[in-house]
Design brief:
single chain, 120 residues, elongated, binds protoporphyrin IX containing FE
């Protein structure tokens, strides 16, 4: 395994852990409750690790690293909604305000992105 493969695979691992933080956090605190810190940081991590994965995959361009730009655009759009509602929900929670359904939108959106990643 080259150093680039190792870096890429470590980013995939971080990407999966970020996903686990958002989806697992959502399930753990259950629907409609507060956006917790791991959910917010997981949502932020997905954008960063996702971009780095795309960057490396685009640079390498072999059979193992194929980038589907349409799929990535859809995932990025959903991930931006996820991080936006997580930021707003966490800020409201810090002020002791009701977070409404923001957590469900974040957790549900991340779940949709798992389906896009796995089924597209
Ligand atoms: C809530 C946000 C996101 C979730 C839950 C999510 C989830 C996932 C999952 C479950 C995988 C499959 C990993 C595997 O095959 O082992 C994956 C792969 C991938 N994701 Fe995301 N993702 C998110 C956001 C993003 C964003 C914003 C980007 C790019 C800007 C991105 C780029 C990628 C890439 C390039 C892969 C392929 C990794 C590989 O080579 O297997 N993801 N994502």
């Amino acid at each position: 395994m080259t150093a680039m493969d190792l870096a890429y695979n470590l980013l995939v691992a971080l990407h999966l852990l970020g996903m686990a933080a958002v989806v697992g956090g959502w399930v753990a605190v259950r629907t409609g409750r507060t956006v917790t810190a791991p959910i917010l940081w997981g949502a932020r991590a997905q954008i960063l690790t996702g971009f780095l994965l795309v960057g490396i995959a685009s640079a390498v361009k072999d059979d193992e690293h194929v980038v589907n730009n349409t799929k990535i655009a859809v995932k990025l759009a959903i991930a931006l909604v996820v991080v936006a509602v997580a930021e707003i929900g966490a800020a409201r929670a810090r002020r002791g305000e009701d977070t409404g359904r923001l957590l469900d939108i974040a957790g549900g959106g991340a779940t949709v992105n798992v389906l896009v990643a796995a089924l597209w």
